[in-house]
Design the sequence.
């Protein structure tokens, strides 16, 4: 992934507008079309009691399974790419994955495991299809890799990371159990008075990359593990005008624990 090509996807915070809908006693997904300068979004409320006063709109169809959720955007117009977004509370949104055009004339669709979503296996939530002005292949790869990790990565695992930032370098081992770091060991460090983070999980490395994108980093170069999807190696340069702020890492020995 390379910085100037990485225009961040639209994943800001929106305050839900109560004037646009009202709560009702029917468990059925409805949708609300919002517009901003760069993105138009279609919101669907899954597992919540919501109704709209607006007229009928193109539907983001949700197919609910025991372990999966399927999404299909019906009556899509144009060729602009769309990103499926998820929110637990309708205010803070996370990009999940691009909705794919399966074939010419076929509405964009995708199926994901529930555990991919922020907060784990979702019993309720808000979804929307955000339309981007242009495609972003590196961002597609980032989202696809994160989905792969959340789907296929172990919930209990150790790993070792060699990392450096400026003049500081370290090699550290971590053990992660259900999203929490339970063991932390510094294998080597320079300079010796520096202490690396004691609670860094694989998910945190995805967040480091996402944060760099939000800051419009000059360079983001990541190699993704083909089997599990985690960022195996990476280099980030936030600003070429600043010295000693570049960050790089190499992650290895990610193995599931019994």
Sequence:
């Amino acid at each position: 992934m390379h910085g100037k090509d990485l225009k961040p996807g639209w994943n800001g915070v929106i305050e839900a507008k109560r004037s646009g809908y009202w709560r009702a006693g029917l468990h059925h997904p409805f949708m609300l079309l919002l517009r901003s300068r760069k993105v138009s979004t279609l919101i669907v409320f899954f597992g919540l009691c919501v109704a709209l006063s607006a007229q009928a709109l193109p539907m983001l169809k949700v197919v609910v399974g025991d372990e999966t959720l399927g999404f299909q955007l019906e009556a899509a117009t144009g060729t602009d790419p769309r990103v499926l977004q998820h929110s637990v509370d309708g205010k803070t949104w996370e990009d999940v994955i691009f909705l794919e055009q399966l074939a010419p004339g076929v509405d964009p669709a995708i199926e994901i495991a529930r555990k991919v979503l922020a907060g784990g296996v979702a019993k309720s939530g808000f979804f929307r299809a955000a339309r981007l002005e242009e495609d972003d292949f590196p961002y597609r790869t980032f989202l696809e890799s994160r989905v792969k990790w959340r789907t296929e990565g172990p919930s209990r695992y150790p790993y070792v990371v060699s990392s450096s930032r400026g003049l500081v370098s370290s090699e550290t081992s971590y053990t992660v159990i259900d999203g929490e770091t339970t063991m932390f060991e510094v294998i080597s460090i320079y300079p010796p008075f520096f202490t690396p983070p004691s609670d860094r999980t694989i998910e945190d490395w995805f967040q480091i990359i996402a944060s760099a994108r939000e800051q419009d980093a000059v360079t983001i170069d990541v190699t993704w593990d083909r089997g599990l999807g985690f960022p195996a190696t990476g280099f980030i340069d936030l600003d070429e005008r600043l010295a000693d702020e570049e960050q790089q890492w190499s992650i290895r020995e990610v193995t599931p624990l019994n």
Q: What stands out?
A: The CA atoms of residues 20 and 90 lie 13 Å apart. The mean pLDDT is 76.
